[in-house]
Write a structure and sequence with these properties.
The chain has 251 residues and is mainly α. Helices cover 64% and strands 0% of the residues.
Length: 251
Amino acid sequence: MASKKTNRLDPAQVADTALRLLNERGLDGLTLRAIAQELNVQAPALYWHFKNKQALLDEMATAMYRRMVADPAARPVGDVSWQERILAANRGLRAGLLRFRDGAKVYSGARFTGTDHAVEMERQLGALIDAGFSLRQAVRASTTAYMYTLGFVTEEQGIEPAPGQPREGFDVEERAERLAEFPLAAAAGAEIFTDHDSRFEEGLRLIVAGIEALYAPGAQAGGPAAASTGSPSDGPPEARSGAAPAPSAGA
C-alpha cells in the first residue's frame, strides 16, 4: 500500500503541504514525519522524492519563488530604470518571504530544483548590463541587494515570528530600562526593533544609492569596481546555489 501511495505523490504536492505546516509549526517543528502524517502516508514514502530535510527545503524554496513571481504586485510596470527594477524585485522578495513563518530561513542557502529563476535572473542582469554595468558589476549589485533583503527578513522574523507577535524580550521600553547606563544603545532600540516597513525601504534605497555611486556609468574611476580583479564566477551564494537574486517577474 505504501508504494501505491508514493506513486500518487509528487514533489510539488509535498512542498505545498510542507509550506502550510510551516506556518502552523515553524521550521523547528517541521519534520518529514509530520508532513507524511498530513499526507496520510508513511514517512519512508517521502524519501522517494527527498533524500533529507534539506532536499525538501530546496523544493519548498522553489515553490515559494514560483508564488513570488506569479504575484502581479511584484512586477514593475512599463519601461523602468535599473534602480526601480532592483527596488521592485526586493520588495517582492520581502513580501514573498513574509507570507511564511520562518520564510527567510527556508529560502536562505536553498538550491532551486528547476530553472524558472534563470528567466528573471537573465532579465535583471540584462537590464543592468544595458545600463552600462559589466557582468561582474551586475551580479554584485543584484546579489548585494538580494542578500540585504534576505538578512533583513531573517532578523525581522526572528523578532516577530508572526506578524504583530513579537518574541519575548524585544519590548523596546523594557530594553531601554535594561540599558539605561548606555543611553545611545538604549535609544537605538526604537530604530532597530520597530517600523520594519520604513526601515527596510530606507535600507534598500541606501543599497541602490551605493550601487549607483560605485558602479553606474560615470561613477568615480579607480573605485572598488575598477580596482577589483575577482572573477564573476567566484561569486556570491546566489550564483553558487542557483537562487535568483530577486523574485520579481520584471527583474
